[in-house]
Amino acid sequence: MTYLLAVDSSISGPDSVSRPLVAEFADSWCAAGPDRSVVSRDLAANPVPHLTTAGLHYAEVLRRPHESVDPAAADLQRELIDEVAGAAAVVIGAPMYNWSIPSTLKTWLDHLHVLGVTTSSDDQPGRLQGIPAVVVSPRGLAYDDSDPGQAGGRPHGACDREDSGRIDGHGRDERGRRLHARRASACGRRTRPRQ
Ligand SMILES: Cc1cc2nc3c(=O)[nH]c(=O)nc-3n(C[C@H](O)[C@H](O)[C@H](O)COP(=O)(O)O)c2cc1C
């Protein structure tokens, strides 16, 4: 049985924009061929723990003697890597949270990026090489001059409060632009030579 790994990280539950898109992708993927199934990993409902030792970033043979790794943590990391390695494809819901991805998704990625295991070397490819991945990444605001409604989502969350305004193409909202202008003129006054 071939499976698609569907990863969700949105904390917005039924209001989520990324979750239905991930689900729609998964449904289409399943419908495109026989013997296809979906394995779901919900990082919001079941977050994986942070790495607690640098040893988990390296294959066992590359670890330094003092980098002891808790066997349970190593088992979990192996499970996460095997889950991706066994997938025919991966779809990842990765909404923009504070100009980045949800921290739960970052932690999952930290587990997957292991030097000497999932990275390629001269003689062999990394374990995850060649697995196609689709990333669904909605965000609440536009970061250019386009309509926010066309940027993949409605204004939402910390950035759409009335007092913060719309973030423009340079990542500054209206108040930010006013502040920036004041700073520029204050700076100009300080540096202007005396007449
Ligand atoms: C904690 C949090 C942080 C957010 N930070 C940003 C941001 O930095 N920029 C932005 O454009 N939208 C931001 N948003 C809005 C989301 O990106 C937007 O609502 C998106 O649709 C979220 O996907 P989801 O509904 O699947 O969670 C944030 C939302 C939340 C909940």
Topology diagram in text:
Elements: E1 2-8, H1 18-31, E2 36-42, H2 71-85, E3 89-93, H3 103-112, E4 133-136, H4 174-191
Parallel strand pairs: 1-2, 1-3, 3-4
The structure holds flavin mononucleotide.
The site of flavin mononucleotide (FMN) has 20 residues, from helix 1.
Give a verbal description of the structure.
- There is one protein chain.
- With 195 residues, the protein is α/β, with parallel strands linked by helices.
- It has two domains: 2-136, Rossmann fold, CATH 3.40.50.360; 148-191, no CATH class.
- Helix content is 29%, strand content 12%.
- It has helices at residues 18-31, 71-85, 103-112, 174-191, and strands spanning 2-8, 36-42, 89-93, 133-136.
- The chain has a four-stranded parallel β-sheet with strand order 2-1-3-4, with helices on one face.
- β3, α3 and β4 form a beta-alpha-beta unit.
- Bound molecules: flavin mononucleotide.
- Flavin mononucleotide binds next to α1.
Helix count equals 4
CATH topology of the largest domain: Rossmann fold
Biggest sheet descriptor: 4 strands, parallel
Number of separate structural domains: 2
Shape: globular
Strand order of the largest sheet: 2-1-3-4
Say how many strands there are. 4
